[in-house]
Design brief:
The protein has 363 residues and is α+β, with helices and mostly antiparallel strands. Helix content is 42%, strand content 24%.
Length: 363
């Protein structure tokens, strides 16, 4: 028994010594590693890669050959370029996305590129993101292939991934090296991703905050969401829960949702209710909302109410004058615009009153 014990201890220390002997120290790489990322909506695209330098070499078609190639190592006999140096270049999508219009699930993928010719390339995403370079590339692990056109750019010594275009729902990723650029577009369904995120979070701690329900309802209203769901959310913010509170903001928001649902009578009643709760700036903004939808009677009512509530406020007269001008009542417009100027208005209000009076040939 004792012999076996010491034999086991010896074996254990031998293994530890062996592991320590072969453990490698960290030293600088020739091709330094980098990570770049870009947010689109609430989703991220993250690329981790190593950055080789040109160093006077002939890159495209030579160092990086066209087509699929036998690299002379590993299991792959037909391998694309690893789109960087050293281990796999990887790309991560935090949500489901489209790359060049093709769907790709959220996750991390090995990013490879096959140069077809001088002007065209194929982006290849592999489910195997942990391999070293393309030496063990296996076509059966492909998650996506997309053809792209390449472009010419001023010389770039270090291989670089950039996000050269960022739009509300998409970004263009570009690999730039030497005199070549290889771009591809990544797009997210931002509205649905955000709405799904709201649905998840409103079930948890963040669901106990009234403003979060209002934010979700407003985003849904403005981004093509389910309006009935948005109405439920804002109703929950207004009444029925321990955190509910009726405010100008949520009443006005509910009115806008009802208007978009075509419930115009309910909308009008809520706008009037919101006007009764509004402060000076809110009531002024409400008036302009009515102008935007050409509800001139209601706009005029709100602007008049603001003047009555704030008889020494230049901006209230300026807004009332602008409303009259839009309605074609020039004399009343001129009267209120001149009243605005008589109250020593701030520069922006003064400029607007003077502009409107000039358009009415009254200055």
């Amino acid at each position: 028994m004792q012999t076996n014990y010491f034999s086991s201890i010896f074996t254990y220390f031998f293994l530890v010594l062996s592991l320590n002997t072969f453990a490698q120290l960290s030293t600088p790489r020739g091709s330094q590693q980098a990570t770049v990322s870009q947010r689109v909506g609430i989703s991220d695209v993250i690329i981790t890669y190593s950055r080789p330098s040109v160093k006077g070499r002939d890159i495209w078609g030579k160092l990086v050959p066209y087509g699929m190639n036998d690299l002379g190592f590993g299991t792959a006999t037909e391998a694309p370029w690893r789109a960087g140096a050293n281990e796999n270049t990887t790309i991560t999508f935090t949500h489901d996305a489209n790359l060049e219009g093709k769907p790709i699930k959220a996750g991390t993928y090995g990013l490879h590129i096959m140069l077809k010719d001088k002007n065209n390339a194929t982006i290849i995403l592999s489910k195997d993101a942990a391999a070293w370079g393309s030496f063990f590339y296996d076509k059966s692990n492909d998650a996506l292939r997309a053809g792209v056109a390449t472009g010419e750019v001023p010389h770039r010594e270090l291989l670089t991934y950039e996000f050269n275009s960022v739009k509300p729902n998409s970004t263009t990723v570009s690999l730039v090296w030497g005199e070549k650029e290889i771009p591809f577009e990544v797009e997210f369904d931002v509205p649905n991703i955000v709405l799904n995120d709201f649905r998840d979070k409103l079930k948890g701690q963040q669901g106990f905050v009234r403003q979060n329900w209002e934010q979700a309802a407003r985003f849904s209203l403005n981004n093509g969401g389910d309006l009935n769901e948005a109405l439920d959310w804002v109703d929950g913010a207004i009444a029925g829960n321990f955190y509910s509170q009726k405010t100008f903001n949520n009443v006005a928001l509910k009115g806008q949702i009802l208007n978009k649902l075509g419930r115009t009578n309910d909308y009008a009643a809520l706008m009037d209710e919101a006007a009764g709760m509004a402060n000076k700036n809110q009531l002024n903004n409400l008036g302009y909302q009515m102008l935007a939808i050409k509800d001139y009677d209601r706009a005029l009512k709100y602007f008049k109410q603001n003047v009555a509530n704030n008889p020494k406020d230049a901006n209230s007269y300026d807004s009332l004058g602008e409303c009259y001008k839009i309605m074609g009542e020039e004399k009343k417009a001129i009267k209120n615009l001149k009243k605005s100027l008589s109250l020593n208005p701030p520069a922006n209000v003064k400029a607007n009153s003077e502009k409107l009076l000039a358009e009415l040939n009254a200055i």
